[in-house]
């Protein structure tokens, strides 16, 4: 098969026989639910960019496009993943140089990409994987299976071709090892991209794609130096770990620790720039965080101020180079300094400053790497902010801003586990339901009903305070979870709540009348109380029993009453 004149027709014949028919079969057997949306367009854009920016390891280009194609497969399914893979194949076809003509490489590469995608996808489905899953363990387990099968099948495919072409190459080479290591390194990033996309949609590819592209560019620029490659690999690991953080405080703390370790600094400072003032948010000295009460200073002062003024990174090897700058907030024994602005959306948000007692401790290359890390840090902070908002929305009722049923259920299960473990001795639950709420909606309108729910939520939140967790259970039902409360204490609190609610005048705007008019309305609530461990052994039981007490002991007894569950 060394003769290209025989190889080319055979490849085209195999391609024509397998790829078009295979695409049709895949489409029929695994039809995609979505063929186009804006999220998919964003995925395709970053797949293209990744194809255009390969990494060079030992002179061999490594394409990391699978960080996108894995996420595409997990979200959109096999057919769409094949189409995206074929698109990236076309880009690689025109990007890479080879002695073989494109008319030969096209059928070979297209056939290879199709066979790999189809085979790996079938293994994924055969093993029990599901498209669109939101279960974390399921995503990681089957996503990793998909990744490993694809890697092995890819190298087997190429090895078989080498054998048929009678080229003397071993199955395992240094490039093979690098390919495995880098692809596995990208895997957490791909999973994070998929999970984040299910939470915030189109923002996920943008939030994770930008730092990924930046790091790729940096690796391309500095691959000639072994030390720089090592540092950049560490930077990539830091970026991946930052992307997994869910809160901004976690991002800041982990970023500072990793930067200090990576550059072997004695001091590290994250400085916030806001309202023309500089304020130190984190101080990391000699391997630990230090609480320091530093007053804010004008943004024009010090090295941080200069970095902001010029919007450029700064590097000083000796103290005499920066001695004329006001640095009252830094230790006096610092010699070497690196400082980079932290920018987000073309706006400077702060400055990262690291210092060392050693002169000339940092290099220009490290300064450039830290500049990239600062960009990664800013994007991770923004992503964490989005995640905090997403989590808050998932835990809160949008109308009343109380905790919702999901959060209540998790808190209740946690408390029951503590009771079972003996770390919590008593737990009570109050369930409340507004009497005749349907007639209120029918008479005054649903908007007025919502106004009552909001005011009632405020009343409960203020009355319960830090004693327990108040949640909207659904509709006009509310629940108060009270750790360390006996049934007797819970009944006293419930009675106080009942009286306060009955005596409160709720202000409403009548929304059914043609002319809106302010009015006041009095409501009552029926309340049931159950406790653990005496009334229930699990979370479902205590809710069920409190609900029984509410309806049989309060509602059926005339409403506007408090009743305790009795066996």
Automatic annotation (TrEMBL):
Entry-linked Pfam families: GAF_2, GGDEF
A GO MF term: diguanylate cyclase activity
CDD domains: GGDEF (cd01949)
Gene3D superfamilies according to UniProt: 3.30.450.40, 3.30.70.270
The organism's place on the tree of life at top rank: Bacteria
Keywords: Membrane, Transmembrane, Transmembrane helix
Protein's name according to its UniProt entry: Diguanylate cyclase
């Amino acid at each position: 098969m060394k003769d290209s004149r025989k190889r080319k027709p055979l490849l085209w014949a195999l391609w024509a026989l397998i790829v078009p028919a295979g695409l049709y079969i895949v489409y029929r057997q695994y039809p995609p639910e979505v063929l186009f949306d804006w999220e998919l367009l964003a995925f395709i854009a970053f797949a293209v960019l990744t194809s255009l920016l390969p990494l060079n390891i030992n002179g061999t280009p490594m394409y990391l496009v699978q960080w996108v194609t894995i996420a595409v497969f997990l979200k959109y399914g096999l057919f769409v993943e094949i189409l995206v893979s074929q698109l990236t194949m076309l880009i690689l076809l025109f990007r890479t140089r080879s002695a073989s003509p494109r008319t030969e490489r096209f059928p070979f590469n297209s056939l290879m990409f199709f066979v790999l995608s189809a085979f790996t996808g079938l293994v994924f489905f055969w093993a029990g994987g599901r498209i669109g899953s939101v279960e974390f363990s399921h995503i990681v387990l089957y996503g990793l299976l998909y990744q490993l099968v694809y890697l092995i099948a890819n190298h087997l495919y190429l090895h078989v071709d080498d054998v048929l072409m009678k080229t003397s190459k071993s199955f395992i080479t240094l490039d093979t090892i690098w390919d495995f290591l880098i692809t596995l390194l990208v895997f957490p990033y791909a999973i994070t991209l998929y999970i984040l996309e299910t939470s915030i949609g189109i923002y996920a590819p943008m939030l994770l794609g930008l730092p990924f592209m930046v790091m790729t560019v940096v690796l391309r620029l500095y691959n000639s130096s072994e030390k720089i490659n090592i540092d950049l690999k560490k930077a990539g690991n830091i970026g991946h770990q930052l992307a997994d953080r869910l809160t901004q405080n976690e991002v800041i703390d982990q970023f500072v620790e990793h930067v200090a370790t990576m550059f072997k600094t004695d001091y590290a400072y994250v400085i916030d720039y806001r309202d023309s003032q500089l304020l130190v948010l984190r101080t990391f000295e000699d391997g630990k965080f230090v609480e320091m009460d530093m007053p804010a200073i004008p943004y024009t002062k010090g090295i941080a101020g200069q970095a902001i003024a010029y919007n450029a990174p700064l590097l000083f090897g000796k103290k005499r180079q920066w001695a004329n700058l006001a640095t009252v907030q830094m230790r006096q024994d610092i010699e070497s300094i690196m400082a980079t602005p932290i920018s987000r959306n073309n706006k400077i948000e702060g400055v990262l400053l690291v210092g060392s007692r050693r002169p000339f401790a940092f290099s220009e290359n490290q300064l450039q790497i830290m500049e990239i890390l600062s960009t990664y840090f800013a994007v991770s902070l923004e992503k964490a902010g989005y995640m905090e908002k997403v989590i808050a929305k998932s835990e809160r009722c949008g109308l009343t801003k109380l905790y919702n049923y999901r959060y209540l259920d998790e808190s209740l299960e946690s408390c029951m586990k503590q009771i079972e473990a003996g770390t919590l001795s008593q737990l009570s639950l109050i369930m409340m339901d507004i009497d005749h709420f349907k007639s209120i909606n029918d008479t005054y309108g649903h908007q007025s009903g919502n106004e009552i729910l909001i005011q009632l939520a405020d009343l409960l939140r203020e009355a319960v305070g830090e004693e327990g967790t108040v949640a909207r259970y659904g509709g006009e039902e509310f629940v108060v979870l009270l750790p360390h409360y006996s049934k007797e204490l819970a009944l006293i609190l419930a009675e106080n709540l009942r009286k306060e609610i009955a005596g409160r005048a709720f202000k409403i705007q009548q929304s059914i009348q043609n002319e809106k008019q302010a009015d006041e309305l009095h409501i009552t609530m029926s309340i049931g109380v159950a406790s653990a461990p005496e009334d229930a052994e699990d979370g479902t039981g205590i809710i069920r029993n409190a609900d029984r007490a509410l309806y049989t002991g309060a509602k059926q007894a005339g409403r506007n009453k408090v009743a305790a569950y009795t066996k």
